[in-house]
Batch of 2 targets.
Target 1
Amino acid sequence: MKRELTRRDFIALSAATATSAMLPKFAMAETETVKYDYESLPPLRETAAKKGILYGSSVEPARLEITKAFSPYYEQDFNDAIARECNLLVAESIMKWDALHPTPEKWDFWLADQLLEYAKKYDMKMRGHTLIWHAAFPAWAEQALKEGRGEALMEEYIAKVAGHYKGKLVSWDVVNEALKGRGEGNEEGLRDTPWLKALGPSYIEKAFRLAAQADPDVQLVYNDYDIEQRPAKSASAIKLLRGLKDKNVPIHALGLQAHIDLETNFAPLKALCEEAKKLGLDIIITELDVFDPSFNTDSKKTDELVAAKLREFLDIVFTVAVPKQILAWGLTDRHSWLSSAQWNVWRNPKGHHIRGLPLDDDLKRKPMWHVLHEFLEKA
Ligand code: G3I
């Protein structure tokens, strides 16, 4: 597919990006249009694999062939696009506590195991997401924490889940989002979660040690959002990581979720990446998407701005270290958390359709795809 960008778009894009050095490598044709030649380029997974990088997406199994026989949400074209572009998958919801251990008596690995088989079939790797998190956490488990049974519960859960997937995953988000979110006081320090209340700050290191015991070879990750942009949160992340390393806690990587938007200021990002690198941690990108808070209705323009914002982000991260795993939180705008009811409540009240992922609704590659291709190619 050739997609044309007019001279006016090009100028608008130039103004939106800070310097000409940050502009995408488009070819300016004599007709004064810029041409992308997307479809002739190899899938992201191929470009990534050449550089020893895994590229991927979060997925809901209900849309994949593993549930074809019974799922009303199955989509052949989506299934094929995932298989074509990705060599890394992460479950969007089905490897969280409420899915794997919904009641005290019930453990359910069936769907997650099916997803692992799917990944194997298409020669993809899988990440685990996530062991300890305050969300997707059932009421019965929270009650157990309140009753002082937190340590035993964590021990049992991590041993069972990380043990079940021992040797089968490339990495685990051991602790997810333990730092304060937006609007939680001064945004410094640990989030007030049921785990913090029950076990104190040491719940984090405990989780890492248990994960290492259960699966000694998997990469163990601390994963969070906004750390690439909110100064207080970024500083808290550095403090947390330093503290864990000082105590010889088995932690191997920092996961930048990278739910960014067109207004994101990446001021603290470089220092965070440098510090993580200094501590001997890998930096990986785990949940990338790019939100447009202005809800621009000119989709062509939005796509260019999204691509430019992604370029700004990747430029900083890649300058410090090339991430060996890069995942977007979805592959196509057709299924994006940014257009979901949950996100709508918070930042998209009118339910606009958001174009924050690499492929459009028709699974066509967008400028964002092109930026990913370019960074993988030059990695
Ligand atoms: O599977 C049930 C289904 O059986 C039920 O009928 C339906 C009714 O609500 O709910 C379904 O579960 C939903 C699940 O997504 C699967 O669609 C949950 O209610 C819903 O809460 C869940 O939301 C996910 C959320 O995490 C909480 O687990 C989102 O899809 C997912 O995008 C979001 O992902 C998080 C990352 O894990 C961490 N970082 C931020 C990111 C975005 O919020």
Note: The first strand starts at residue 2 and ends at 5.
Target 2
Amino acid sequence: MKRPNCFGKKGSEYFSDMKTKVFHVNPVEPDPSTLQSVGRILREGGLVAFPTETVYGLGASALDAKACQNVYRAKGRPSDNPLIVHVSSPDQIYQYACSDSTGLLNKLMQNFMPGPLTVVLKKNEVIPDSVTGGLQTVAIRCPAHPVARKLIEAAGVPVAAPSANLSGSPSPTKAEHVLQDLNGRIDCILCGGEASIGVESTIISLDESGVHLLRPGFVTLEELEEVCGKVYVDKAVLQKLSSDEKPLAPGMKYRHYAPKANTVMVTGADENVRRFLASALQDNVSIICFEEDIDFFPDHFRHRIHILGSKHDPLSQARNLFSILRNADEKDTKTIYTRQPPTEGVGLAVYNRLIKACGFQIIQTDS
Ligand code: TXA
Ligand code: MG
């Protein structure tokens, strides 16, 4: 499927005649002939959304500069926000990036790959500039999801893939989220069940200055430090940057996951936060809280309460987070108040996505 060169046309003209094909596969044992058909769409320059263990990705051949430019167009993504290259086995990383100067890459591969870890390394000349937003580095990961790996294998090319959402909306953990955002804007969606992790991969960079955590995820800071020693956490993970500061991952400067409603994090002792939330609750307010909080709210507002999971279960919180952000942001919602998740382990990833959704607005209820 060779697509016409549509650059220079307005977005609406570009997408006007596009029909998105929908394929379904078993998430554990995907049908090989479906993977061959969809892999061919990728190889020939088309855009395909596919499941990974973290979130759904929007893939294009990472060797095809035009296809990668179409990814930015389909998502409405700024061209300075580079894409992650996905490979079907960890050793393929060396085909697209230079060996790291820290000597830690092999150890990281043994411990965490395939899986939800992305590494940023110096790129080699095979990777076009449109993948890396002009940077001399490339972010690479080998997903663990059988559909993702077998699809990349069937395509026979590395696959550049950001999350398969419109720029600015929460990442998609279900095929229906992808259709909500991208139906009619991409060639194909391969449906393969719900993402089991629910937040995007952990991103680290490896260079002379050491190991830096650019984005927290399922592979935790604590686990990385066990393997690599000291890991420096980029300021953008936890704090709002001033206009003259730059995050190490360009995407972290955008207010991702921004609900339309004003979203605010409420912190403090359980009883103080619950008192605040119960008094704030009204028809145009949504609350994101823990399972343990539910009895503190009146039954008739039950539909305005969105439960992230148990306070002590960051894995459930991660899995539910993006669906909840989509649901809490209903048409009539003016304000969303969310509890602050604990920041240990995978909790750091949940906190990072939520505090960004809040634009770093916090109400402290302990006086
Ligand atoms: O789990 C994931 O990582 C998902 C699935 C589909 O694999 N992908 C994903 O991609 O979350 P995306 O595009 O939504 O986020 C990629 C992040 C962005 O913040 C981007 O700026 C950063 O990775 N990134 C990409 N290339 C980079 C590079 N060379 N240096 C620093 N950051 C980079
Ligand atoms: Mg994204």
Note: The chain is about 30% helix and 20% strand.
